[in-house]
């Protein structure tokens, strides 16, 4: 299969789903929305959503117009984002529809782009190292573009003849890269040299069909979402398969099209499911803690969620949205490929009031239905049906909130 067919499969007809709405300004004020909702202990608060740089920049823009079926987009409009990251007041958004990386500088109130058309062809995911170095996976040019802490282009790494990089995680002096072309995860040196591979293409437990997103835990375990196999596989640093999280299915704790992965500050795993349009939260061992979100035109609604990312360095810019009794620890960004809300922002944390109230309540029973059950996700009962025999047993959900 050639590179272009693989890319089209990976993107899932994204370019056909560009929204027909005009430039969106900041969302109107809405009632405070917590996940899980009260009286459970909230772990997340919905803050805001946007699909343009306009709410954050000083420059005014005009309404997007449609002329003879051709869209004339405003320069700062976000049309089909996949990867997202944030650091020190800057939000980086890989926009497949615009074939560029938006850079929204919240402090300077400006919008720029990362690199240029010669340096980036189709940027899909972006990863920011602790020193500010940025790695952008480019499925069109078949390489990873490296930018420094000041967003200056450094060099490309990788071999386009054998690799179509979809996502990347940093592990010390090495890079873990999802290679769509070979359907495997590779370990690279920082200069792009292939050191070894993790697993291979196949349908056996631990093998891949289409590894699209990757994260590494603080304990060194490697988590990979396989969008075609509808599962998240877990490996140790040596590449040995350990277990899987979830299995193909339409109930809580199962996946349909898992994509973006991110660990919250307490070590729990957030998984974006593009088909069910929810975010599921798992303990590292695999038990389901919480899920939230639904397809909706409301400001908090999701639409084909893809990349997700936590950031604790930009909280000050979103504090006006935070409820008075909520104590945020980090921000959660979710990129939606479809719908009005291209970037949705949540605060991750807790409320003292809810925690105090929970201490006086009896514990919920295991048979209780999750209060965050989204209307669009099939399956109302808490216990999933038996997974296919070719997949590891799916974890049984529990009802404690994420991070507790």
Question: In brief, what are we looking at here?
Answer:
Helix content is 4%, strand content 38%.
Helix-residue proportion: under 10%
How many strands, what sense, and barrel or not for the largest sheet? 5 strands, antiparallel
CATH T-level topology: Neuraminidase
**Portion in beta strands:** 35-45%
CATH C-level category: Mainly Beta
Count the E strands.
27
The CATH homologous superfamily is termed TolB, C-terminal domain
CATH architectural type: 6 Propeller
Give the key terms.
single chain; 404 residues; mainly beta; Neuraminidase; 5-stranded antiparallel β-sheet; 4-stranded antiparallel β-sheet; 27 strands; 4% helix; globular; disordered C terminus
Please provide a written account of the structure:
- By secondary structure, the chain is mainly beta.
- It has a single domain, classed as TolB, C-terminal domain (Neuraminidase, 6 Propeller).
- It is built from 2 helices and 27 strands.
- A hairpin with a 5-residue loop joins strand 9 and strand 10.
- The longest helix is centred in the first third of the chain and has 9 residues.
What does the secondary structure layout of this molecule look like, with pairings?
Layout: H1 3-11, E1 33-35, E2 44-50, E3 65-67, E4 70-72, E5 81-87, E6 90-95, E7 100-105, E8 110-113, E9 123-128, E10 134-138, E11 143-147, E12 153-157, E13 165-171, E14 174-179, E15 184-189, E16 194-198, E17 211-216, E18 222-226, E19 231-235, E20 241-245, E21 258-263, E22 269-273, E23 278-282, E24 288-292, E25 305-311, E26 326-336, E27 343-351, H2 352-358
Antiparallel strand pairs: 1-2, 2-27, 3-4, 5-6, 6-7, 7-8, 9-10, 10-11, 11-12, 13-14, 14-15, 15-16, 17-18, 18-19, 19-20, 21-22, 22-23, 23-24, 25-26, 26-27
